[in-house]
Amino acid sequence: MELSPSLQQKIRAWRLMRCRGAIIVQKLLKLFGRYRVGDQEPLHLIAVDLAQQGQLLWGFHPFGDHGQAQLAAQADVLVENFRPGVMARFGLDYARLKTTCPNLIYLSISAYGQEGEMSDRPGFDPVLQAESGMMSITGEPDGAPMRHPISIIDTMTALQAVGAVTAALFARTSNGGKGQQIDLALMDVAIAALGNAGGYYLASG
């Protein structure tokens, strides 16, 4: 029996959604007729989100509304990747949360860091690959600069985030339970990833 592409997509979506947990599956099944793998939600996002459970807060409101503060008070780690200043507008910046959640590990991921003249700029993996010089050492010797085939800076930043959060959680066990903010920038990760190629450039120009 040959299944239609539409039915194949639904079966594949069902299998993937099962990994997300029954609660999420039950909610998504209500919209299953409109759900398409690779259409409304890219397949790579589904793969990354497997087995996760979440709570959707409709809109952002001042601190304390709609459960944001209560969620933060119960959390060990908060991860955000807005431009600096956006979370403050929501009333969920580290300066405010640490007064009520002193044990919170607050991970801020941005393109260029929380401070500096470029901090307010948005950034995406291909842009950082170009600006860091990574594209200049990728591709054919006599060809144009070429981006890495995967989102390599995003991936390496995620790995750095795991290490940083793990270290912060460990530090919390010996400093009286005090949390901290982690400032992780894609540009910093990209420059560090250049390794010896970056060293050659600095040494020789």
Low-confidence segments, ≥5 residues, pLDDT <50? 1-5, 20-39
Assembly type of the shown chains?
Answer: single chain
- The SS-based structural class is mainly alpha
- Helix content percent band: 40-55%
Which band does the percent of strand residues land in?
A: 5-15%
Rounded Rg? 21 Å
* Contiguous helical run count: 10
- What series of H and E elements makes up the topology? HHHHEHHEHHEHH
Largest sheet: 3 strands, parallel
Can you tell me the overall shape? Answer: elongated
- The largest sheet has its strands arranged as 1-2-3
| CA(first)-CA(last) distance | 63 Å
Q: What's the mean pLDDT score?
A: 78
Total E-strand runs = 3
Task: Explain what the structure shows.
The protein has 205 residues and is mainly alpha-helical. It has helices at residues 5-18, 22-29, 43-48, 68-74, 86-89, 94-100, 125-132, 152-172, 186-193, 195-204; strands spanning 77-80, 105-110, 180-185. It has a three-stranded parallel β-sheet. The model is unreliable at 1-5 and 20-39 (pLDDT under 50).
